[in-house]
Structures are given as structure tokens and as C-alpha cells.
Amino acid sequence: xxxxxxxxxxxxVRLDDVHKEYGDTKALDGVSLEIRAGDxxxxxxxxxxxxSTLLNMVAGLDRPTSGTVRVHGxxxxxxxxxxxxxxxxxxxxxxxxxxNLIDDLPALDNVALAAQxxxxxxxxxxxxxxxLLEELGVADRRNVYPAALSGGERQRVAVARALMxxxxxxxADEPTGALDSRSAEQVMDLLIDLNQIGQTLLIVTHDPxxxxxxxxxxxxxxxxxxxxxxxxxxxx
Length: 236
Ligand SMILES: Nc1ncnc2c1ncn2[C@@H]1O[C@H](COP(=O)(O)OP(=O)(O)OP(=O)(O)O)[C@@H](O)[C@H]1O
Fold this sequence. Notes:
Blueprint lengths: L10 E12 L2 E12 L3 E5 L6 H9 L6 E6 L2 E2 L5 H11 E5 L10 H10 L5 H14 L15 H13 L5 E5 L7 H16 L3 E5 L3 H7 L2 E6 L2 E7 L5
The chain binds adenosine-5'-triphosphate.
GO molecular function: ATP binding; ATP hydrolysis activity; transmembrane transporter activity
InterPro entries: AAA+_ATPase (IPR003593), ABC_transporter-like_ATP-bd (IPR003439), ABC_transporter-like_CS (IPR017871), ABC_transpr_LolD-like (IPR015854), MacB-like_ATP-bd (IPR017911), P-loop_NTPase (IPR027417)
Keywords: ATP-binding, Nucleotide-binding, Transport
């Protein structure tokens, strides 16, 4: 597997004084944060403190009320909706608690589609998808539809899809939240392996075990703000 993170000092994510308001609710209230290439950062905090809002800003799925979000050197505020969608497809991979695979497509096509949407030919996309499924240990499930995959297999397919375009950043929103403990440990092993070969990770979770296993840095949120940052003694 290869990653596309450039030099180790490269800043992959930079938020400057980001605010996000939904009516009277301050979901983000002045967040500044920097993530460098190769970092593995866990974001934790109580329900409603702004974690998903942060992830949506970094993914370019939503825009701040004020402040700037730069990802992989690009000011996301300078992009229109089409530009944002293209940027996201090329440079950001995402995995979710409930996988978000397309039910009507077998595993291989779910993965290949991510590259086809950026203009890669179907033949090349399918070849890379198969390589990734092999590396993630689920190539034998390539023709199976998501409904017939186990939770752990679904998340592996989702990771393969997220990695298709060699993203500068892999975002994970409760990636083990819907898995049994054995599958959860396997997905954590996978995230650790990816980070060890240079993949930058931003993980939102309620699970301290996931944070301490997979991340080198913990960012704790409260009321839309970063209230503490600390280095983690990873239990790898
Ligand atoms: N689209 C929206 N419209 C209105 N309010 C929203 C919207 N999205 C989030 N909020 C509010 O913003 C605040 C932060 O929500 P957010 O989902 O980011 O929290 P969270 O930390 O991810 O919570 P959880 O851990 O429960 O997922 C909450 O008060 C939430 O109700």
C-alpha cells in the first residue's frame, strides 16, 4: 500500500478560528487545529460538543460560519460546491460507523466506483480495487453484496474504498462503533498499519480504547472548543 503524504513536516489540516453556528447553537466556537502528515489524531468529547461538525468541516461537507479550513494546502472556502466535491473525492477518504456502502453494488464495485468518480477508467479502477481488497484480506468477498458481508468485512471494504484515491487524509467517524469486539480490534489493527506506513488519520470516537490504540494525539472537545490536547501513550 502506498500513501501520498509528501514530506513528514507537511501540514495536512489547518483550522484557524473556525466557528459554526446553527441558529443559536454554536457547534464550533473558535477551533484552531493543525494536523501534520503522518499524525494520527483522535477527537473525543461528550455528545453534542461538535465532533461531527468538525469532521464535516474538514471533509468539506459543510462550511464554517467564519474562520478558515485548509486541507492538503487548499483553502476549502475558496472552492465552489463542485470544486469541493472534486477535492473531497481526490484528497479525503472517509469511513463511518455504519459503513455507508452502496447496497446494490458488490464489494469490488463499491471500491472501484470511488476512482471512477474521479475519472479513472473502469479497468484501472477495478484493478486497484482488487489490489486493495487483497491487501485488506477481503478479496475473496469481492463479488458479494454488502448485505451478505459481516460488519468487519463491510468496514474493510469501506476502508478500501476510502483509500482508492490515495487520500492525503483518512477521516474516521466511530469506525468500530457497530462492530463486535474481535472485528473492532481488526479494524484498529488496520488503522494502525495504515498510520505506520504514513497515512494521516483523524478519528472521532467515544471509545478511549480506540483512541489510545490508534492515535498518537488526543484532542478533547467541550462546547464546540478544544479544551485539551495531549500526546497519547499508544497501546499498540
Ligand atoms: N445540521 C444541524 N442543524 C442544527 N443543529 C445542528 C446541526 N448539526 C449539528 N447541530 C448541533 O450542533 C451541536 C454539535 O453537534 P455535533 O453533531 O457536531 O456533535 P457531536 O459531538 O458529534 O455529537 P455526537 O457525539 O452525539 O455525535 C449540537 O448541539 C447539535 O445539535
